[in-house]
Amino acid sequence: MGLESSEQVSQKQPTQMEPPTPPPKAAQNETLAVSPNSAKTARPPADSPSADVHQANDLSFASANPAAGSPLVTTTGPSYGAISTTAEHADQATTEADEVRSGSTGKVPCSRCRRISSGMYGSSASSITRAEAELVPKFIAAQVSDAELRQISQQQGPNVAAYYEAQNGLISEMLEVNQQHTDDTLETQSEQRRQRQHQVDRAVRVSVVVNVLVVIAQLYAAVSSESLALFATMSEASMDLLSSIILLLASMAARGSDRFSLYPTGRFKLETIGVIVFAVLMGTFSVALLVESVAALLSTAGSPNKLSLYDSACVVAALVAKVGLYWYCYTLREYHAAHVLMIDHRNDVMVNAFGLFMAIAGKHMAHWMDPLGSLLIALLILRSWMHEAWGQIKLIIGIRADPRLLQVLTFAALTHDPRIEKVDRVVAYHSGAKLFVEVDIVMPPSTPLFIIHDVAESLQEKYEHMPGIGRCYVHVDYEATHRPEHQNAVA
Questions:
Q1: Residues 444/242, Cβ–Cβ less than 8 Å
Q2: Cα separation of 283 and 322, whole Å?
Q3: Is the separation of the CB atoms in 469 and 125 below 8 Å?
């Protein structure tokens, strides 16, 4: 067949063009992909006001065969029709697409991620994915009411009721994620996050001040009563003061970073390292307290302590202060520093209450109960903080996220944009206290580059505005039959 001129090619109908075959990839391991729909998003009628805008942005892959000497010809893809058959028409379509993107045609791009408004793709309904339209009503219908939960608990047992209650929570999280990704909502979320962070900083500062007062009160009670159990609680309060200072310094250092600094991804791991250092100090202190308590128990010349009413009042005041701090930090428990302080204050309440009881028993019942209380407190402190240290070490290593969160992330990607055909892979793992997320999505091969960029960037921002997620990486592909990518070989 002879070569055709660009004028001859331009007279052909676009519908006669066949879609190009994308280059195959190595398919060693077939990857399971989630697909929201097999049908494509409906295009607007040719006579609709947005049809020209839709076609201007329906640019597909341009292919040229150098061997045959054929001119530039754009071909159709799975969801985007052939628009122009000459380089001149392709340039005109590209110019129109750029005008739409810049806002000169009245289409205002998104202020946050520069997405093109949904009007350029037809009606506003086209921005809702088929997966979202099909799954959301089913999810809402699957939720179980409180009355049904009580009935299930009575008839089938509390374990079955707990399962349905957990399912209700998972459905609520999935539905909430999709309702949060608008410009106004993102601005509101950022402001709320700043306010919550100020509350966390306030909780850390208040904890430091209260711990100073608690240490002074318990030091007076321990010295005045000569009680080994109260001395153990005082020493534990002193270590709490040190932990509050460490967390405060780590929190301040973690925010002092930008992309041009020595640590461009931030220094939020300092909080995790600070907790590990503090746990080691607490373990060392607990061992020393164990030795002292065992020596007091083995001593034959024991005598009751000198606990007075004023000493007991000091310990009770410390208990009340710790209970108040515990409930305040409980409201901020989704933040790492506040969560650590919440656990710390909870342990203090139990330790101080138990220490006061054993000190009273050592005076009025048997003198050996006082050092026994000190021994048990030391064991409790050692076990609690060694467990906390191991948990923080796993965060540094990079333990995976909870499977429940992976389900929420997968649903959020699947229903994010109608042009996302499949969700190939979702991985979430810890890097310190924050989570890193990697997601692979599949889009039509003919999708223009700027649309791919805007969809991927908006999905990235959607994830990074979720609590606990520090960074997200979105990888876009045109098929899901290749072997898993970005996998390091493990010897």
A1: no
A2: 22
A3: no
CATH no. of 403-477 = 3.30.70.1350
Structure tokens given for 13: 């109908």
Instruction: Specify the CATH number of the domain 195-395.
Output: 1.20.1510.10
Q: What distance in Å separates the CA atoms of residue 429 and residue 397, rounded to the nearest whole number?
A: 9
- Quote the Cα angle for 254-259-264, to 5°: 55
3-state secondary structure the chain: CCCCCHHHHHCCCHHHCCCCCCCCCCCCCCCCCECCCCCCCCCCCCCCCCHHHHHHCCCCCEECCCCCCCCCEECCCCCCCCCCCCHHHHHHHHHHHHHHHHCCCCCCCCCCCCCCCHHHHCCHHHHCCHHHHHHHHHHHHHCCCHHHHHHHHHHHCHHHHHHHHHHHHHHHHHHHHHCCCCHHHHHHHHHHHHHHHHHHHHHHHHHHHHHHHHHHHHHHHHHHHCCHHHHHHHHHHHHHHHHHHHHHHHHHHHCCCCCCCCCCCCCCHHHHHHHHHHHHHHHHHHHHHHHHHHHHHHCCCCCCCCCCHHHHHHHHHHHHHHHHHHHHHHCCCCCHHHHHHHHHHHHHHHHHHHHHHHHHHHHHCCCCHHHHHHHHHHHHHHHHHHHHHHHHHHHHHCCECCHHHHHHHHHHHHCCCCCCCEEEEEEEEEECCEEEEEEEEECCCCCCHHHHHHHHHHHHHHHHCCCCEEEEEEEEECCCCCCCCCCCCCC
- Reading phi first (left if > 0) and then psi (alpha if -120 to 50, else beta), residue 466 is in beta
CB 408 within 8 A of CB 177: yes
Please write the tens of the pLDDT for every residue from 363-416: 888 778 888 888 888 888 888 888 888 988 999 899 999 898 999 999 989 888
The distance between the two most distant Cα atoms of the chain, rounded to a whole number of Å, is: 113
pTM, entire model: 0.59
Give the pair of three-digit tokens for residue 397. 């290593």
The single residue listed with the structure tokens 């004028």 is 7
Residue with tokens 């220490």: 355
Alpha carbon dihedral 241, 247, 248, 252, in 10-degree steps, equals 160
178 — pLDDT class (breaks 50, 70, 90):
low
Q: How far apart are the first and last CA of the chain?
A: 54
User: Quick one: angle between helices 269-298 and 228-254, nearest 10?
Assistant: 170
Q: Is the pLDDT of residue 181 over 70?
A: no
The residue among 53, 13, 41 whose CA lies nearest residue 421 is 41
